[in-house]
Amino acid sequence: MRRLRVLASVLAVLCVVVLACAGTLRATVLSRGFYQSVLDDERAYDRLYDEVLVDPKAQPVTRSLLARLPVPEAVVTANLKTVLPPATVRKLTDRQIAAVLGYLRGDTDALHLSVDLTPVLANLNNLGEVYLGSLVSSSEERSEADLDAALKDMDTALEDLSAGRKPDLPRVELDDKAVKDGTRLLLSGVPEDEREALRPQVEGALAVGDVATALAAVGPHLPGTTAGGGGKKAQQDLIRIADGGQWDVAEDLQNSGANTEALKSARGITDLTLGLVQTLATAIGISAVVVLWLFGPRRRVHRLRHLGRLLAVGGALTGVLFLLARWRADSWVWTPPASWPPSLAALVSDLERTGARSFTEAGLLASLVPLGAGLLVIALSAVMERRAAGRRLSPRTRRYALSGVGAALTSTIVLGPALLPTAATGSERVYCNGSAQLCDLRYDQAAYLATHNSMSSTADQFISPLQDADITTQLDNGARALLVDTHTWEKRDEIADRLKLSEFAPDMRKRVTGLIDKASPARPGLWLCHAICRAGAVPLVDTLQEVGKWLDDHPGEVVTMIIQDGISGEQTASAFKRAGLERLLYTPDSDPGAEWPTLEKMVEDNKRLVVFAEHQAGPAPWYRNFYRYGMETPYAFKNPGEMTCVPNRGDNDKRLFLMNHFITHGGGSRIDAGEINARDFVRDRARRCEAERGRPVNFVAVDFANLGSARAAVDALNEARTS
Q1: What is the longest distance spanned by two Cα atoms in the chain?
Q2: What is the C-alpha end-to-end distance of the chain, expressed in Å?
Q3: Each residue of 13-51: pLDDT tens digit?
Q4: Any residues with CB less than 8 A from the CB of 62 and at least 6 apart, and which?
Q5: pLDDT confidence of residue 405
Q6: What are phi and psi of 555, to 5 degrees?
Q7: DSSP code per residue over 420-463
Q8: What are 313's strand-pairing partners?
């Protein structure tokens, strides 16, 4: 009988260890949330965009992936967040995680990693304007006074665009008649039902010789263009190139040197552990408890104490096992091949280390369940024994009490180790603007990518746009501050006065008055316009509703709007109310010098939209004048060499700092944007301005945010502030 009790005791301890390990596996290796948590902890999505895919050394690894897209590799990389927005990448990644989990659980016999590229194909349609804008932004400008030669060059450029080639663009000087002839030529390849909508933008651009903007507007509408926006043939060709819309990830991983054999080994462990082993451990554990209870010490309280000891020993052994695993975790990390670029190898290694650490932490938590329960049972049995020595309970009462404790004990042995890791990994971590670390920063300590004249976009057919993507896409691509202009539709006699204050080139101001009046009659309501609404406008309330929907879809994001207010404060407040945004609006302290809350506090309170006016303030308490709270740099730079940090509007001691980082020379400059939006250029100027002005740069306002890598610079500024 003694040997039977010893054997049952050993088996009970082993079963506790096995069940704790199995529960940890279920909550980590076989949990979808575990993988996403590891990816988020290591900022994998941000690092993919900002480090790996922009690293020239990563091209051999990424080329086979990007080659499936009928857009040049460099263009796809530069505009990756338009082709593959973070939300799309998360969905695609989640599907691969589900496929891996199905394999590890034994639901499928073979590992199938196949990505449905349908979302990518859809996003390529939105890339049209951005892609063509990138093509023309780097073209050399040259004068061309000969109309026939100019038209011939434009015709050649159209052929190049339709074939996906980079065009050689002329810089033309055209009179009114030539503008109309050039517009007719550019629109000739566009479907008839789309021509009138594009005509104002094309005519306005050609009026100042801006062939780049004209082609960027027309190109995506050309039938058959390989930019992805030109009809069925392009879509069919793309699907054919993309292997029917499916990408075999497993094959590419094996070709790149990844060790997929490790998954097969893991599948053998999980299949065995969570199948036969877990079932046997449960059955044997229950049997061992029954044997020890029936054949244990004569007094039941002693039996209870013995079971508590076994439970505590099992928990302690589990803890030791996972401590040893943690000590040896580095040896588990797979070393990527030497041919892999350092940025990609570092990301993979960091993910493995974080996953191993999280796995062992979950195991240690699981070990606390039997350890704590065992100690509790031991303490309870001691109390019961002392009370029994002083005043004995009736046999019936003692029997019920001990039976209840025994049932709880058995449930703890069988269920506790499996349930606790799930509960532990189920807690949600707060992320602020995509980073857990940023949550600790105050609003006035963090840096935000800001888009200058956010509403003036190629996508919304503005004449001489300053952004390519619409506002929602800008937010998707990392913008967290929107600089917009509010207006009511101008009367004809107001156009000249508005143009004097605009950033349009002098020649365009002369031409545009008659052109835009014919193309776009006055319309009532409140609008977001760049200087004059006839040159491009989007409805204010509708756009605010889009911003609100985006914020609802991204509950951890804080967004700022700085409004060049051409309408009254009452009209602005009414628009925000009609858009349903009052619930999200943060009200700054009436004292501009007061300390701002942390981003975490704003996220927790769901007050995640901060709105400033350039000129007025109020009457709504949340609508403050920006220059009472913030300061800025100049904004009328004509070339990169002129960019300084000297004070402009706002005193030099404000808590918020807006760095205007764009070139204005007869309108926005795509070519200069490609240069000054480079990561090092933005970061170095921000650091210089911070040193000169004594405050951290908060808002980095750029034109053509899709060109260059301004977001990576902003991320670098934030990383330095959270380290």
Answers
A1: 114
A2: 62
A3: 888 888 888 888 777 877 777 877 888 787 777 777 667
A4: 52, 53, 73, 77
A5: 55
A6: -70, -5
A7: HHHHHHTSPPP-BTTBTGGGGSBTTTS-EEEETTTT-BTTTT-S
A8: none
Amino acid occupying residue 538 = V
How many Å apart are CA 211 and CA 157, to the nearest integer? 10
Q: What is the pLDDT, as a whole number, of residue 274?
A: 58
Domains in the chain (CATH in brackets) are 2-44+261-425 (no CATH), 126-229 (no CATH), 437-722 (3.20.20.190)
Q: How would you classify residue 155: left for phi > 0, otherwise alpha for psi between -120 and 50, otherwise beta? A: alpha
Q: How many CA atoms lie within 13 A of 241 on its CB side?
A: 18
634-664 as b/e: b if 16+ CB within 10 A:
ebebeeeeebebeeeebeeebbbbbbbbbbb
Q: The tokens 């835009």 sit on which residue? A: 516
Phi, psi of 451 (to 5 degrees): -100, 125
The residue assigned the tokens 């306002």 is: 701
Residues 475-491: tens digit of each pLDDT: 988 999 999 999 988 76
Cβ contact 24:359 at 8 Å? yes
Alpha-carbon distance of 423 to 648, in angstroms, equals 54
Q: Which two tokens stand for residue 506?
A: 């002098």
CA distance 489 to 311: 77
Q: What is the mean pLDDT of residues 366-378?
A: 83
> What's the rounded Cα separation, in Å, for the pair 44 and 35?
11
**DSSP conformation class of 1:** -
pLDDT at 471 over 90: yes
